[in-house]
Amino acid sequence: MELDEAIARRTSVRYFDERPLSEETILRLVESAIRAPTASGLENWLFVVFRSEEARKKLYDLIAEGMVEYYRAVNLPEDKMEKLKSRMYEEGMYRAPVYIAVFIDRRVRFLNGRKFDEVEFIWSVESAAMAIQNLMLKATELGLGTVYIGVTNFQGIEEKVRELAGLDENYYLVGVIPVGYPRDEVRPRKRRKGSTDVVKFV
Ligand SMILES: Cc1cc2nc3c(=O)[nH]c(=O)nc-3n(C[C@H](O)[C@H](O)[C@H](O)COP(=O)(O)O)c2cc1C
User: Fold this and answer.
1) Atom 7 of ligand 1 has which residue's CA nearest to it?
2) CB-CB neighbours of 134 under 10 Å
3) Fewer CB in a 10 Å sphere around the end CB: N or C, the chain?
4) Does a structural domain hold residue 191?
5) Measured from the CA of 94, which atom of ligand 1 is nearest?
6) How far is the CA of 176 from the centre of ligand 1 (A)?
7) What is the number of domains present in the chain?
8) By the 8 A CB rule, do 100 and 26 touch?
9) How much of the chain, in percent, has pLDDT values that exceed 70?
10) Would you state the pLDDT for residue 22?
């Protein structure tokens, strides 16, 4: 698949079929992920693959908790909340054969001095986000769907995901990516803005 096609076809997929993913496929995705740029060459990312039934169920409940919190934070009415719950618990939204939680290890540092603490943390998150995009594009090429779950970063939830992954507070969660074969036909979402709306030449 040409790069342009992968970029154009990638879109958030929230419903998956039950077909499992082989370990080989997961490793191919991670191999693409770790080709991303990484600030100071740190490579301080960690890809935790949730694949057992038990681990996935626990993570799923945390995604649900985060989504409810998100809906509340944007003041969605109660009936929308019920719809969300039925989409999740009855229709299986976000239920995937595999979830890849991407963490960074805060201990890995390149720059000396407190002055650089924040910028190096941000660089690490940015590097992991670039890795996630590579992973998503590779998944598209392999006919797989993905979606970036950010709500698991909410306070109180992020720690629980970290604990499920068996990691201590040296690790920070960048995102959770459900991965699987799309249940339905994939239709990329349009953008509201075109390139000329978001470009400024100076
Ligand atoms: C950092 C980040 C966090 C996101 N968090 C969520 C999330 O928690 N739940 C969700 O359903 N989608 C989430 N998304 C997906 C966006 O909603 C989606 O990318 C956007 O609506 C554009 O649609 P598209 O990806 O299909 O082009 C997130 C995307 C990003 C980049």
Assistant:
1) 149
2) 18
3) C
4) no
5) 11
6) 11
7) 1
8) yes
9) 100
10) 97
Q: Name the one residue in this structure whose structure tokens are 């790069």.
A: 3
Query: From the CB of 147, is ligand 1 less than 6 Å away?
Result: yes
Judge contact between 38 and 110, C-beta under 8 A.
Answer: no
Identify the three-state secondary structure at position 16: strand
Which residue has its alpha carbon closest to ligand 1 atom 20? 12
Q: Pick the closest to residue 104 from 80, 89, 121, 92 (CA basis).
A: 121
Q: How far apart are CA 170 and CA 129, in angstroms?
A: 18
| Amino acid letter, residue 139 | A
**CA angle (125 as vertex; 119, 128 as ends), nearest 5:** 140
Question: Which CATH number characterizes residue 111's domain?
Answer: 3.40.109.10
Q: What is the pLDDT of residues 90-125, one digit of tens each?
A: 999 999 999 999 999 999 999 999 999 999 999 999
Q: Residue 171's pLDDT is what? A: 98
pLDDT tens digits, one per residue of 52-61: 999 999 999 9
Res. 136 pLDDT band, cuts 50 70 90: very high
Band (pLDDT 50/70/90 cuts) for residue 150 is very high
Regarding the beta carbon of 73 and ligand 1, being less than 6 Å apart is answered no
Q: Which residue range(s) make up the domain with 35?
A: 3-184
Which two tokens mark 183?
């249940």
Nearest atom of ligand 1 to the alpha carbon of 191? 27
User: What's the DSSP call for residue 149?
Assistant: B
In a domain, 120, yes or no: yes
